[in-house]
Design brief:
218 residues, mainly alpha, 66% helix, disordered N terminus, HTH-type_TetR-like_transc_reg, TetR/AcrR family transcriptional regulator, HTH_TetR, DNA-binding, Homeodomain-like_sf
């Protein structure tokens, strides 16, 4: 069972991001791979990306990557743990680009905009980003329980908690943030667009409406 997110008193002057960011590994926290191991990992990811492009991420297997890379299956498992770990590693580059945009990028997504503007921009950015890479994201979400505990999800959750607090939202901030994350889930977005025929513009308008109901609209 995962530990609950830290609840900080409103009067305590500490960024709500701090508690979660302590749980998110930075590059310096990762085990330092030997040069040859790092090269092998990069090569395996290149092979996996090529196979995902050719046959679709849903059909990507550890055995297929091992065969294409001409290594033993155990090598792939040692590098990535399991198939979900491999898919998460493939998503890492795209995810870091998104993280950079909402943590340090220009407004309205980045820090130089108001909290409400950033909340609105965050929803649109995540929906468009994940839908553009939906093949990989949908495949990686096969392990739904694990999705809620990976660093990328924790970072998004902590970011929403921070913006909701700054925007003066009332209620249980963590649950409000989880509600917002649920709206952005790629499995739901893909269903609404592919099967319900909704447009991206309609989803973004719905996100803005939801944000407006949770905070004092500026």
């Amino acid at each position: 069972m995962t530990e609950p997110l830290p609840h900080l008193p409103v009067s305590q002057e500490r960024d709500p991001l701090d508690g979660l960011l302590e749980l998110i590994p930075t590059p310096d926290d990762q085990p330092r791979l030997r040069a040859d191991a790092a090269r092998n990992r990069t090569r395996l990811l290149e092979v996996a990306a090529r196979l995902a492009g050719e046959c679709g991420a849903a059909n990507l297997t550890m055995e297929g990557v091992a065969t294409a890379a001409e290594v033993g299956k155990g090598t792939v498992f040692r590098r990535f743990g399991d198939r979900t770990g491999l898919l998460i590693a493939l998503l890492d580059h795209q995810e870091r680009e998104l993280q950079s945009a909402f943590l340090t990028g220009p407004p309205p997504l980045g820090p130089d905009a108001s909290p409400v503007e950033r909340l609105r921009a965050f929803g649109a950015a995540v929906v468009r980003h994940e839908y553009a890479h939906r093949d990989l994201y949908l495949a990686a979400r096969a392990d739904a329980l694990r999705h809620h505990t990976i660093p990328a999800t924790l970072l998004r959750l902590s970011h929403l908690c921070m913006l909701l607090r700054q925007a003066g939202a009332r209620g249980d901030i963590e649950l409000l943030a989880q509600t917002l994350l649920g709206y952005l889930d790629i499995t739901l977005v893909d269903h609404l667009i592919s099967r319900r025929g909704m447009t991206m513009e309609r989803l973004e308008a719905g996100w803005n409406d939801l944000v407006g109901r949770l905070v004092a609209v500026e």
